[in-house]
TrEMBL record:
GO terms for cellular component: membrane. Residues 456-565 form the STAS domain. It is a multi-pass membrane protein. It comes from the Bacteria. This is SulP family sulfate permease. It holds the Pfam family Sulfate_transp. Its main location: membrane. The chain crosses the membrane at residues 40-60, 66-82, 89-106, 112-132, 144-169, 181-205, 217-242, 262-286, 306-328, 334-353, 360-378, 398-425. InterPro entries: SLC26A/SulP_dom, SLC26A/SulP_fam, STAS_dom, STAS_dom_sf. It is found in: Membrane. Keywords: Membrane, Transmembrane, Transmembrane helix.
Amino acid sequence: MRPSRTTAVEAAPSFVELFTPKLVTVLREGYSVANLRSDALAGLTVAIVALPLSMAIAIASGATPAQGLYTAIVGGFLVSALGGSRFQIGGPAGAFIVLVATTAAAHGMDGVILATLMSGVMLVAVGLLRLGTYVKFIPYPVTVGFTAGIAVIIAASQIKSLFGLALAGPEPGPLIEKLPALWKAAATVDPVTVALSATTVAAIAGLKAVRPHWPGMLMAVAIATLATALLDLPVATIGSAFGGIPASLPMPALPQMSLAKVVAVLPSAVSFTLLGAIESLLSAVVADGMTGRRHRSNCELVAQGIANIGSALFGGICVTGTIARTATNVRAGAHGPIAGMLHAVFLLGFVLVAAPLARFIPLASLAAVLIVVAWNMAEKQAFAALLKASWGDAAVLLATFLLTIFRDLTEGIVVGVALGSLLFIQRMSRMTAIETAVPFVPEDRADTANGGRTPYDETVAADPDVVVYRISGVFFFGAAASIGSVLDRIADRHRALVIDLSAVPFLDSTAANTLETLAHKAHRRGVRLVFTGTTHEMRQTLFANGIKPPLARFDRRIEDAVGKLRRRLSARD
C-alpha cells in the first residue's frame, strides 16, 4: 500500500498573536530587576556604538549629524517598543546612505523627510498585509551583491573627507562621475586630515585586535576629537560644517507636502520601503540565529513603519534594523526590547547634556568610522565563495553588485531577484522528468514473490495497447513545455494511456493546461486516458481545467488502471 501524502496543518495564528510586540511578550513572562540591569548595560553599550555611527551615516547621507541622532533616538525607541524582535536595534543604516544622498540631491532634505514618512506608511501596509514572510525568498547572492555594492559606494563617498580634498564644485553622486572629480582634486590633499583619518582607522583596528569588547569606534573618535581641540588642528569639524548639534529634540511637525512633491518622491519612498524591509528582517534573522528566538516578521515591519513615521515627524531620516548594533545588543547580554529603548534614552541624554562637545568632532574621524563600517559590510568570503559556486550564482551576484554600484540599488535588487528566479525555474525544470513504458511492482506482493518471474511486470512495457508514463518532480510552467512535447508524441498504435503523478509533489495551472490539451487530443483519437497517484489538491486543479470524466478517468494505482483498461479493451475486441 502506497502511503498517502498528507500534511499536518497547524492552526493559523490569530491577528493578535501575529502583531503583539515582543515587549508585551517579555513583560508577560515576568520582568525582574536583574533583567533591567542586563538591559541597561546592553543599552548603554549599544548607545556608545550608535553615537558616532548615527552622526557619520547622517553626514554621508547629506543630512546633519543632529538628524542622525534624532533618527536613532525616535526611530530606535519605537522599533524596540513595538517590534516583533526581542533584540532589534533601529536607527540610521549605512545601506541607506546612497538612497538618501541621491534623494536629497534631487529633492532636497524636505523630499527625504517626506519620502521617509511615505515609506513608513508603506511599511505599515506591507506588515498588515502579511507580506513580510516573502522577504525571505530573496536569493542569497542578491543580498551579498547589494551589500558589497553599498560598501563600495560608502567607501567612495568618504574619500573627500578622508583626504580633505577641495573640489571645484559639488561632489557628483554617481560613482563614474565622482571618481574623475576626486582625481582632479588630488593635488589638494591635506596631510593633517590624512594623518587624522589614518590614526582613527588604526585606533579602531588596534582596539578591536587587543580589546575587542571595548567601544573602539567611540574611543577612536574621542581621541581624534581631543587631539583636534587641544592642538587646534586645521581640519573640518561638525562645528565648522554644521554649527554643532542642538541640545534638545525639535518639536514634531509634518514635512512640506503637495501632490506634485508626493509624486516626485514616490520612487524614493518605494526604494526606502524595499530596502528597509529587507535590511530589518535580515537583522532580525541574525538576532534569531544568535539567540535561538523567533521574531514576528509582519509585526516587525509594522514597527519599522511607525518608527519611520516618527523619525520623519522629528526631522529624521530613514530607520531600519541595524545588523551590527543588533548583534552588539545580543552580545552585551540584552534580555529584551527594553535594552533597545534604553539605548535611545542614553542617546537622548547625550543630546541634552553633551551636545556642545560634538562641535569639536572632526569629519575625518567620522569618515574613518564609515570606512571601517564599509569594510565590515562587504561579505568578502561569501562574495568569493559565490563566484566559485556556479555560473548562475556568480551571474546573479555580479549583476546585483554592478547594478548597485553603477545604476541604482533598487534596480540591482529587482534584476538580481529576477535572475535568481529564472535560475531557480531552470534548475527546477531539470529536476522534472518523465519515464515512458513504466514497469511496476505489484504492491500486494513482495518483490521476490512473483511466481518465478522477474520482480517487475514487464508486460506493461511490452503491451502494444496500453502505455504508461510516470512524471516525477514539480510539474510547473518551467517544465510544462518539455513534458508536453513528450506526451504529445503518443503513438497511434496505443489504445490507452496511463499518466502516473504519484511522484509529483505539486502541479500548477500551466501543467494542468498541458494535460488538458493531451486529454482532448486523446479523446479525439479514441485513446482512453487514466491518471493515477493524484492527490485531492491535484484533482481539484485538473477538474478546474476541465479534466474530469468522461474526458479522463482517475485510479489510485497503476496496477488498477492497467487491469481495468485491459479488461475493457478485451471486451471491445
